[in-house]
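user: can you give me the structure for this one chain? tokens are fine.
assistant: on it. calling the predictor now.
[tool input]
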Amino acid sequence: MALSNTEYGKAYEYACLLSLKKRLLGKTNGKLTIVESDAYKTAQNAFCKAKDEGVSENLIRAADAAARVIVRLEPQLEYGNGKLSLAIQTDAQGIAGDVRDVVCIRRENDWEIGISCKHNHHAVKHSRLSATIDFGKEWFDVPCSNVYFNKVVPIFNELRDMRIAATEKNMPFPLWNDIPDKAERFYIPILCAFLEELDFLASKNSDIPRKLIEYMIGRYDFYKVITDDRHRTTRVEAINIAGSLNSPINGHRSMVDVAKLKLPTRFYHMGLVPNSNNKIEIVCDEGWTLTMRIHNASSKVEPSLKFDVQLVSLPSSIHAQVEPW
């Protein structure tokens, strides 16, 4: 049975951990440990399935490329003090604002870095909207207005009522594909309400652009590694907001300096992407641009919708490297 996208992602996380272990094992005086948590075992099982399917070699090559770049940028991996621990995090960490999949920790140095592993995609966050979800409170700690909820609650309640009607008639839940004009009836009105509320919140709170990016990329600095199987390359991006990446240790420093990125302070443009009925674009200062595609996560109608968020533009000062394999 072919691997699902989720299993591919987990297998790639395991491959990245394996590549770091292989590259560092002989350089840490035996002081390297793997944290064999439930998350580690889940990723390991996915990798074993990838091996059975004959697709693990590309995962390892892609992960080896990422490890080559990251080890060059992080002297602490080779020259830090004490034990180096490698671990895979649970998906719940991402919900809590930590998007790192693999973490490297030296507790003696009070040091750690993380890696976000992406297999053939650039998505950063998957968040939901519904009649009860207050995205302003969850994302920015600033509650949404009643005006916003007055717009979206009737729309989501219509979806809820479709499920209730099916249950009462002892029929299967309706499918999204069977709903006519779903973009005009649901996607576009909800996106417009979302954009209007985001603009309203930003007009009252000057730090909303910064908080939006912080929410999307998480609370910690990390390296984002994206494999591109078609071109046989791995792209490594240093998301260095707090300045914790690339730190020297014991007289050793990287030959390359990783710049600290500036967060945005204003929105330049927000609106629907041309010729799209389910995607918006948000353009900020300091070089940040993201797109947010709203979609139904399930084939069955649910009273909620999901965002697929991609960073399509980053500050020009970002350290990014494409490593062939």
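assistant: here you go. The longest strand covers residues 304-313. The chain has two domains: 5-121+217-262+317-324, 125-213+263-313.
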